[in-house]
UniProtKB/TrEMBL annotation:
<comment type="similarity">
    <text>Belongs to the glycosyltransferase 20 family.</text>
</comment>
<dbReference type="Pfam" id="PF00982">
    <property type="entry name" value="Glyco_transf_20"/>
</dbReference>
<dbReference type="GO" id="GO:0003825">
    <property type="term" value="F:alpha,alpha-trehalose-phosphate synthase (UDP-forming) activity"/>
</dbReference>
<dbReference type="InterPro" id="IPR001830">
    <property type="entry name" value="Glyco_trans_20"/>
</dbReference>
<protein>
    <submittedName>
        <fullName>Trehalose-6-phosphate synthase</fullName>
    </submittedName>
</protein>
<dbReference type="GO" id="GO:0005992">
    <property type="term" value="P:trehalose biosynthetic process"/>
</dbReference>
Length: 478
């Protein structure tokens, strides 16, 4: 895209997220290029971005100068430059060592650091300025996630004509936790700069409304929040997955035969339990390993006939808390295998690797039980992917009550992951369920997902934002 075009303020739809939806690649000749990153958000937004010639503003993933704006697969990409100090302060620090743990119930101690807060402000302003430059008059701007919570307020100052939406992908915490945050009023004012603020779960929406009233004295109305003479709508928009694509993978003969091969390679055990998480302390990996080991020790499950496959995707490896977690998990896996393995069989298969969508789908098909037991999770797409992939309606999902997905996938074996006995009972119950019970539970969940896929989620949010009248900024009646 030419510089003039990019600067011209011509985009009717602008998306902002920490990351651009592409990753850097190099081909065999060493030439650099871009590849669309896997992920539901870009899939969901692709058709509408294309139709409305939208722009996506985000970081390209490497510290240093930003590449010029470019087009990839019909999406106009506007890279934001982050220096090494920005990456450390805004991304690893304030976003992932302060906000991330605080918003996930403080399961790890959040770290508060003034230099990180300054970087966070500076980078948020850079995003807001980029959006202010490229957005057409009256454009829709959709800001994503906890990295960019100051952007709506900053952007409203720069461009009061825009309709600004914000969606938080992670939980929004209760008042008493949020109030630990040194930037608490600033963040609330930032979010209230939006016309529409969306959350994964009704609890987050409630927490936000309570905080607006208690912290900033905003007035709570039927449709949302009245703050400084403007109406801000706040509502729940549970994100979903590309259900049709997941279903296609689940019926693909190559994927099905790979699933059968995985079971053979695992030694054809009676029960395969699968867990797939980023290696993050919110995902409850340690509680799950403890419950699994107790089940093996107490003969709730036969160690000779059961396998747990734990896929742990590498993530945020520069951050201390993540390095410490990795050491603890790997020590625990070795200990369990040391005590319960036999020659040629291992009760835990631990894979610290990334997989492509087809291999992941084959793992979902190979698993009798899917264990999704985070201590706190905004939604958890893995739970939805498992249900959607199992096209024959079999399979058993054990799901934490503290994942956003539990509000929708009510027929799963729902469990409090802190309660070791309950976790063991849920895992054993799922492992011994017959095909009738599996189908009875899976059918309504599969039906729910068919009606609530990621396209419905994106359209729901954008239609609601589009209905908000500019000027009065009062949401129009439904
Ligand atoms: P995450 O915390 O990353 O997302 P999740 O919702 O489970 O968690 O999404 C992970 C995605 O990565 C899934 O689509 C999954 O298929 C993929 N993935 C997992 N293991 C992989 C592997 N080994 N290789 C390749 N891909 C793998 C955050 C919030 C969630 C919220 C989402 C979306 O923490 O609560 O659901 O955003 O809003």
């Amino acid at each position: 895209i030419s510089a003039r075009q990019a600067e011209a303020g011509r985009y009717d739809l602008v998306v902002l997220a920490n990351r651009l939806p592409v990753d850097r690649t190099t081909d065999e000749a060493g030439r650099p290029g871009w590849r669309q990153s896997p992920g539901g958000l870009v899939t969901a937004l692709h058709p509408i971005m294309k139709q409305r010639a939208g722009a996506w503003i985000g970081w390209h993933g490497l510290p240093g100068p930003a590449p010029s704006p470019f087009v990839h697969d019909d999406i106009h990409l506007h890279p934001i430059a982050l220096t090494a100090d920005d990456v450390e302060g805004y991304y690893e620090g304030q976003s992932n060592a302060t906000i991330w743990p605080l918003y996930h119930d403080g399961v790890e101690q959040p770290v508060f650091d003034r230099a990180w807060q300054d970087r966070y402000r500076a980078v948020n302003l850079r995003f807001a300025q980029a959006a202010a430059r490229v957005a057409a008059p009256g454009a829709l701007v959709w800001v994503h996630d906890y990295h960019l919570q100051l952007v709506p307020g900053m952007l409203r100052e720069l461009r009061p004509d825009l309709r600004i939406g914000f969606f938080l992908h992670i939980p929004f915490p209760p008042v008493e936790l949020f109030c630990q945050m040194p930037m608490r009023e600033e963040i609330m004012r930032g979010l209230l700069g939006a016309d529409l603020v969306g959350f994964q779960h009704a609890q987050g929406t409630r927490n936000f409304r309570t905080l607006a009233a208690e912290l900033l004295g905003a007035e709570i109305t039927d449709t949302g929040i009245r703050y400084q003479g403007r109406d801000v709508a706040a509502d729940t928009f549970p994100i979903s997955i590309d259900v049709a694509e997941q279903q296609r993978l689940g019926t693909d003969p190559a994927v099905r035969s790979r699933a059968a091969q995985i079971r053979r390679e695992l030694g054809d055990p009676r029960t395969v339990i699968l867990a797939v998480d980023r290696l993050d302390y919110t995902k409850g990996i340690e509680c799950r390993l403890r419950a699994y080991e107790e089940l093996l020790s107490r003969q709730g499950l036969d160690p000779a006939d059961t396998v747990l496959v734990q896929v742990a995707v590498p993530t945020r490896q520069q951050i201390d808390q993540y390095q410490a977690l990795r050491e603890r998990v790997e020590r625990e896996v070795s200990r369990i295998n040391g005590e319960h393995a036999g020659i040629g069989r291992m009760p835990v298969h631990y894979l610290h690797q990334s997989f492509d969508r087809a291999e992941l789908a084959a793992l979902y098909l190979a698993a009798d039980v899917m264990a999704v037991t985070p201590l706190r999770d905004g939604m958890n797409l893995v739970a939805k992917e498992y249900v959607a992939t199992r096209a024959d309606g079999t399979g058993a999902l054990v799901l934490s009550e503290f994942a956003g997905a539990a509000a929708e996938l009510r027929q799963a074996w729902l469990v409090n992951p802190h309660d070791l006995d309950a976790l063991e009972q849920a895992l054993a119950g799922a492992a011994f369920a017959d095909a009738d019970e599996q189908r009875r539970r899976m059918a309504p969940m599969r039906e729910h997902l068919r009606r609530h896929d990621v396209n419905a989620w994106a359209a729901g949010f954008l239609n609601r934002l589009g209905r908000i009248a500019v000027g009065s900024r009062t949401p129009a009646p439904q």
